[in-house]
Write a structure and sequence with these properties.
mainly alpha, two-stranded antiparallel ribbon, 2 strands, 59% helix
Length: 440
């Protein structure tokens, strides 16, 4: 996975060449010495293991333990010769997995107080120093890139301080896009959201606090996705770089798992809305116009949302039928683009080209997502869409054959379009989704 992330960042840097002129890399000052970092960590290692396993609860003085852990796992990324950056990244990822997985404390979550209140804040402090202004990417390309790649691992600690830090990185206009890219990816580790479906829930302080933070997570992503980008004068490569960053935000938002944090009829408002932004992606209501890859991520996110009353989660105000139409619209475009590309990669002549999209991979994802859509929405249009697409279209794509019964999908899209007025929520007033055909 790490190599894929590196490749993505390199690609992005090339696409943003007009925005980023990287001079010769300077020799930036490293944080701490190898000897001091090793000595400080060795001194607290035994106590750190007890705290991270949940065997003991934090006491006075354990703040220093968290500080030593953070310095050891974060500061080493600034050492060009003493430590291998790949190993440093891997060890942080391993620690993050251990403190959250069943491998630690027999699955006990008793370590959460220490991780959330002590270790998380110290990890943020350490990373802020690594990514400080005087370590700008133009002067310290290597450190910033390698440190940015550690942000998703930080997200796995699921600490409030870390999630707040990621939100701040995404929202800050001064954050370099290379760092923001990893922060957007890291948000997938913070989600899904916890759906608040009853006024009584808000009387519980822990739920109210979680609701507030989930709304902040969602809004950081939705505002980034829906921001209006001035594309006049930008090259095709620069516009694609904008889409690339936005796709990462869409993929993270799609992991929210619910249409909104809260949509309570008695309150008469929707908070932390997720579904409308994903729908606007598919409807094409963004600038620049979303790519097919962006729409696929949004459609799959809509399929995975659990919400209607009587099913997995209770949010009776959400109307999933618009989702069914927009998922069908995405599949219709998916098939059309596949057929265009089919003429390029299916030939056996020297003119044969590599598929421009991972059609088989996306086909498998759609098959699983459609099954979830039927489970989450119930029978009706969702089942009909599933029937019209699974065997005659997606199964053919997985074999690199030409899809069958395409007209049936096209007719389904037209029929559903006439049944939707763009409303996402049934009775709560919320801006409708503009359905003017620009999604195609």
């Amino acid at each position: 996975m790490r190599s894929l992330l590196c490749s993505s960042c390199v690609w992005l840097l090339l696409a943003l060449a007009a925005f980023l002129a990287v001079p010769s890399i300077s020799s930036a000052q490293q944080l701490g010495t190898k000897k001091d970092l090793e000595a400080a960590y060795d001194k607290v290692r035994a106590r750190a293991n007890e705290l991270l396993k949940g065997d003991v609860q934090p006491e006075k003085g354990d703040q220093k333990v968290a500080e030593a852990i953070a310095h050891w796992y974060i500061y080493r990324i600034t050492h060009r010769t003493s430590f291998d950056p790949n190993k440093t990244q891997s060890e942080l990822a391993g620690l993050a997995s251990d403190v959250w997985s069943k491998k630690v404390g027999g699955g006990s979550k008793d370590n959460r107080a220490y991780v959330n209140n002590y270790l998380g804040p110290e990890l943020v402090k350490a990373m802020k120093l690594v990514l400080a202004d005087d370590r700008d990417i133009k002067n310290d390309y290597s450190t910033v890139i390698n440190a940015a790649l550690m942000l998703p691992s930080l997200g796995r600690f699921k600490s409030d301080a870390i999630s707040d830090y990621l939100v701040a990185l995404i929202k800050d206009d001064k954050t370099h896009d290379v760092v923001r890219l990893s922060a957007l990816k890291a948000m997938r580790e913070i989600l899904p959201i916890t759906l608040v479906d009853d006024q009584t829930d808000l009387e519980v302080k822990s739920i109210a606090a979680r609701k507030k933070r989930d709304i902040e997570h969602v809004e950081a992503l939705t505002k980034f996705i829906e921001r209006q980008v001035k594309i006049e004068g930008l090259s095709p490569e620069e516009i694609n770089a904008v889409r690339y960053l936005r796709r990462e935000a869409i993929t993270s938002l799609a992991s929210a798992g619910a249409p909104a944090v809260s949509a309570i009829k008695k309150q008469g408002k929707v908070e932390g809305a997720v579904a409308p932004t994903l729908m606007n992606v598919i409807a094409g209501n963004l600038t620049p116009t979303p790519s097919l890859q962006e729409k696929i991520e949004a459609a799959i996110g809509l399929c995975h949302m659990k919400s209607p009353k009587g099913l997995a989660v209770d949010m009776p105000e959400y109307d999933p039928q618009l989702s069914v139409y927009l998922v069908a619209l995405t599949l219709d475009q998916f098939v059309k683009e596949y057929n265009k590309d089919f003429t390029n990669f299916s030939v056996t002549t020297p003119a044969k080209k590599i598929p421009y999209l991972g059609w088989k991979t996306e086909g498998r994802r759609f098959k699983a997502a459609l099954s979830d859509l039927v489970k989450n929405v119930g029978k009706g249009p969702a089942s009909e869409l599933d029937f019209r697409v699974q065997q005659p279209i997606l199964d053919k794509v997985l074999l690199y054959h030409q899809p069958e019964q395409i007209q049936a999908l096209f007719q389904f899209v037209n029929d559903q379009r006439g049944k939707n007025n763009g409303k996402v929520f049934k009775t709560i007033k919320y801006p409708p989704i503009v359905l003017d055909g620009s999604g195609q």
